[in-house]
Amino acid sequence: RKEVEQDPGPFNVPEGATVAFNCTYSNSASQSFFWYRQDCRKEPKLLMSVYSSGNEDGRFTAQLNRASQYISLLIRDSKLSDSATYLCVVASLMDSNYQLIWGAGTKLIIKP
Amino acid sequence: DTEVTQTPKHLVMGMTNKKSLKCEQHMGHRAMYWYKQKAKKPPELMFVYSYEKLSINESVPSRFSPECPNSSLLNLHLHALQPEDSALYLCASSLGTFTSSGNTIYFGEGSWLTVV
User: Fold this and answer.
1) Rg of chain A over CA atoms, in angstroms?
2) Average of pLDDT values for A89-97?
3) Whether residue A30 has pLDDT greater than 90
4) Closest by Cα among B49, B39, B34 to B89
C-alpha cells in the first residue's frame, strides 16, 4: 500500500458543479496535512493546510478524518481556473525530522 | 508571486557539461530543499538543508552536488548527468524543518533541465 494515495483522475466536471476528492494515508502517526495545487508546467502552490476541525477558504473546504486516515477537498461552484492537479501532502515524523510524503495528484478538468 | 527565485528557468546541457542551478529566498526561512519532478509524478525530495547544514540526502547520485553558501542561497551543481536526469528541479524553503500547521513549504518556479 502506498503511503499516500490519490485517485489520479482525471475528474471532468462542468463549470459551477461541486467536486470532491479524497486522499488516504497509511501512517497513523502523521501530524500535518496539506493540499497543494499544481498547474501544468508550473510549481506546486499551497492551497490550504488541513486542520483536525476542518477548514474552509472561500469555495474550498478541507476535512481530516483521522479514524479512517483520509483527508478530503471539496470545491464548490467550480471555475474554469480550478483546472489543475491537486496534490495531497502528509507530514510524518521520520528519523527526528518531519518529512513530507506526496500523493501522486488528482487531475481536475473543469469544462464550460 | 513566489518569493523563492530560481535561475535559470530553462537549461539544456550535454552529458559532459558542468552547470549549476541557483535558488534564493529572502523570507528568513532556515530550511531549504531541492526536489526533482518528472512529468505526471509528484515532486521527489533530493536534499534538505537546515540552518545551512545538509540534513537529508535522499540517496541522490553524486553527479548532483548541493551547496548552501548562506541562509538565503542554495545551489545545485550538476556534472556528468544522464538523459534520464531531465526533469523539473524545484527549490523550496520553509521556516524550519519540523513541519507544523504554520510551517509550510514554498516552492520556486523551478528550473527545467534537459540533458542531451
Assistant:
1) 14
2) 76
3) no
4) B34
The secondary structure of A69-88 as a DSSP string is TEEEEEE-S--GGG-EEEEE
CA distance B94 to chain A (A): 12
Asked if A100 lies within 8 A of B48 by C-beta distance, the reply is no
- Cell 509550510 belongs to B104
Q: Which residues contact B59 (CB under 8 A, 6 or more apart)?
A: none
Q: Quote the pLDDT of residue A16.
A: 97
Distance CA B110, CA B99 (A): 22
Distance from the Cα of A29 to chain B's closest Cα (Å) equals: 13
Who's near A31: CB < 8 A, 6+ residues apart? A91, A92, A93, A98, B99, B100
Residues pairing with A45 in the sheet:
A37
Give B17-42 pLDDT, tens digit per residue: 999 999 999 999 989 999 999 998 99
The C-alpha cell at B95 is 521556516
> Given an 8 Å threshold on Cβ–Cβ distance, is A100 in contact with B45?
yes
B41, B99, B108 ranked by CB distance to A98: nearest: B99
Would the CB atoms of A99 and B101 count as touching at under 8 Å?
A: no
Q: How far apart are CA B95 and CA B103, in angstroms?
A: 6
Residues of A whose CB is below 8 A from B110: 42-43
